[in-house]
Each structure stands twice: as C-alpha cells, then as structure tokens.
Design brief:
It is a single chain. By secondary structure, the protein is an alpha+beta fold. It has a single domain, classed as Roll (Nuclear Transport Factor 2, Chain: A). Helices cover about 35% and strands about 40% of the residues. It has three helices and six strands. A six-stranded mixed sheet has the order 2-1-6-5-4-3. A hairpin with a 2-residue loop joins strand 5 and strand 6. About 15% of the residues are buried.
Length: about 130
C-alpha cells in the first residue's frame, strides 16, 4: 500500500467517525456519543462567551449531552461541509434548537475534531457572532 493510499484510508476513517458522531447527536443517542469518545476526550463548547467551557473526560461530556438533550429536545446539527486529513476533521454546521420553554434559535459554526483509533479525542467548537 502506498503512503498516499494509507493516508486516504486514515482520512476516510476519521470522516466516518465524525459522520457517526453527527448522526448520534441528531438522534440524541448519548450512549453512542459516549462510545465514540475516548475516556480522556476534550470538548470545548461555544458557551459561555467569549471562550466557551472546556469539558475533559467522557463522564463530564456525557453528562453535558444528557443535560443538553433534556433542555433542548429538538437540538439538531446540519452538516454543511465536512473535510479532513489524517486524524483531523473540520465540520461547518448549522445548529437549531427549541427548548422546553419554547425558545427557538439557530447558529452557525465550525467544529475541529481529532480522531484516534476510531474515537473522538478532541472536539473544539466555534460559533459565528
């Protein structure tokens, strides 16, 4: 196998994991999200301003997903663009929500992913505006 071929396969594995992650998010499947993260995964959220909260470790991130889907049962990410190289991926997205209290909104942003051995090790989120 050539270096270019191995690199392309690595990239495709990374993109596949990120697609699975997005699908699990949109299905609010916390168990699948957790399975797609390493135990020491890092998630940098877009909130609160200006830099967002940094969550470390699968238990903390899993608790966040559980809370998010509880307060925003219609949370949805639409992937607008996805590309990557080797263990890195970039997702340009549009996030929409409707909370239990009736607040509706949308925002666009970018996530930077790092994937190793079929699991997300890092998800850094940035938002416009």
């Amino acid at each position: 196998m050539s270096f270019a071929s191995a690199d392309a396969q690595h990239t495709e594995r990374t993109l596949r994991v990120v697609r699975e992650f997005a699908q699990a998010f949109n299905e609010h499947a916390v168990d699948r999200l957790t399975a797609l993260m390493t135990d020491d995964c890092v998630f940098e959220n877009t909130h609160p301003k200006p830099d967002g909260a940094r969550l470390e470790g699968a238990p903390a991130i899993t608790a966040y997903w559980q809370w998010l889907f509880q307060v925003s049962p219609q949370a949805h990410f639409a992937v607008e663009e996805l590309f990557g190289h080797a263990d890195r991926a970039v997702v340009r997205w549009r996030y929409t929500w409707c909370t239990r209290s009736g607040t509706v909104g949308c925002v666009r942003g970018v996530d930077l992913f790092r994937v190793q051995n079929g699991q997300v090790t890092e998800k850094l989120s940035y938002v416009k505006g």
